[in-house]
Amino acid sequence: MQFESDPRFVSRLTRHTLAIILAGGRGARLSHLTDWRAKPAVPFGGKFRIIDFPLSNCINSGIRRVAILTQYKSHSLIRHVQKGWGFLRGEFSEFIELIPAQQRLQEAWYAGTADAVYQNLDIIRSHEPDYVLILAGDHIYKMDYGAMIAAHVAREADMTVGCLEVSLNMAKAFGVMSVDAEGRVLQFNEKPAHPQSLPNNPDVALASMGIYVFNTQFLYEQLSSDAENLQSSHDFGKDIIPKLIQSCRVFTYPFRDAHSGQQAYWRDVGTVDAFWEANMELISVAPELDLYDKQWPIWTYQEQLPPAKFVFEDEDRMGMALDSMVSGGCVVSGAKIVHSLLFSNVKVNAYSQLEDSVVLPDVQIGQHCRIRKAVIDKGCVIPDHTEIGIDLVRDAQRFDVSPQGVVLVTPDMFGQHLHYHY
Questions:
Q1: Where does alpha-D-glucose 1-phosphate bind (predicted)?
Q2: pLDDT of residue 102
Q3: Residue 356 · residue 370 · CB < 8 Å
Q4: How many whole angstroms from its chain centre is CA 109?
Q5: By Cβ atoms counted within 10 A, which residue in 29, 166, 266, 390 is the most buried?
């Protein structure tokens, strides 16, 4: 096999791969967190944005030609990428291209994931890739795409689908596959009401991650054919994959940890509850997602900020943080932070208490506040004596309370209309 005889096999493949990140979705299940930004632009993990994870995976995998397709309220996303991802060298044919929805082929916005790629085929052709890697821009994970592309080539596949095992209940929100012993896809059902379980494990199903590798010419042919089908919704999961598995070589690539062989870390932070939980996981002593991993760093735009500061040591006014993550630029002034995650430039004033909360950048919390199990959106100014997460019935009258009791607070809910111009 070529992979065994050529030590540069994978690097040659990644060099000739173009990654396309689909980053145009609103992410409506995140409620008011996406009122003014696309889901991939939502902050995560104290200093990152969701888009940083697939972008970092590309760079760490040796893929340095990346196109980001945007659509819904993309300004925040575009600014972040321009600030933090401009370090590639054009003279080496390295780039991260931002491609807004432009109605290049028709007078309509993207109808589906396949249509988003189809409407930019002329741009893809201009880069002349051998392989096209299509990624969702809204998941949290660390993955070596080079190994997946190598498996795709070794199997002489037309298309390879990244997959993971999920519970049957979770599988209802995914594309679910059944495969043969070699991993070739036999069936594919998008968001089935009754997912088919794995033969050796009746409790889980094999779900698509929304990650695809295509041979480039094959992708051109399939997208052009799909565009002519007036009955198609022009979506990879609903239309492209089900059609291909009957006559083409479509294989799965299981997403597993390279060392343990077990299911690797992957999170869809598509709801307020999932977003809160994934951030809370990072606070644990040994989180499954290691942000301190020097072998696979997560890159981002790093604002130049002073260190976090904790002030006052009075008996009833002591600035402290316990079992928490606190980012640069934060000032905890005589307040107590417990099991919480503070993004950059958060200021918490005297006698306030935070517990089990995620506080996004540039938030100011007044004095004598009590906040529990909350997500506070960027730029909020919390008035003195505010209580959040203490009385959920009262909270529901002014904030957004999730099914699991997480209270989402945005500036608009306080009448602080940061995004309006008068």
A1: 110, 175, 190-191, 208
A2: 76
A3: no
A4: 22
A5: 166
Q: What is the CATH number of domain 309-414?
A: 2.160.10.10
What is the tens place of the pLDDT at every residue in 317-330? Answer: 999 999 999 999 99
Domain range annotation of the chain: 2-281, 309-414
Q: What are the tens digits of pLDDT across the range 360-415?
A: 999 999 999 999 999 999 999 999 999 999 999 999 999 999 999 999 999 999 99
Looking only at the bridges linking them, the beta strands covering 185-190 and 317-318 are unpaired
* Spatial separation of the C-alpha atoms in residues 127 and 99, rounded to whole Å: 14
pTM higher than 0.90 for the full model?
yes
Instruction: Give the whole-angstrom CA distance, residue 141 versus residue 328.
Output: 24
Residue positions forming the annotated binding site: 110, 175, 190-191, 208
- Closest among 401, 361, 405 to 32, alpha carbons compared: 401
Interval 178-200: pLDDT, tens = 999 899 999 999 999 999 998 88
Q: Give the other-Cβ count within 10 Å of 93's Cβ.
A: 11
Cβ–Cβ < 8 Å for 393, 377: no
Q: Which residues contact 296 (CB under 8 A, 6 or more apart)?
A: 56, 60, 142
For residue 322, the number of C-alpha atoms closer than 13 Å in the C-beta half-sphere is 7
Strand partners of residue 332: 310, 348
Has residue 106 got a pLDDT over 80? no
pLDDT at 107: 63
Residue 340 in tokens:
């919480």
Residues in binding site for alpha-D-glucose 1-phosphate? 110, 175, 190-191, 208
Q: Which CATH architecture has domain 2-281?
A: Alpha-Beta Complex (3.90)
Residue indicated by tokens 């498996």: 151
